[in-house]
Design brief:
mainly alpha, about 0% strand
Length: about 50
Amino acid sequence: YICETYDDFKEFVTDYYEIDFDENLLEKLYTDGKLDVNELSQLIGGES
C-alpha cells in the first residue's frame, strides 16, 4: 500500500483528487483492493 492506514489513504485520495468520496466504498477499496464496475462508477461519479 502507498499508505499505512485507511485514514492516511483517505486523506491522500481526497487531497489528490479534490473530491469527497463515499466513505464506505473508499474503505472497501482500501481493505479489499478492488471494487466491481458499479461500485467504481459510483465512487468516481457519485451515481449508482
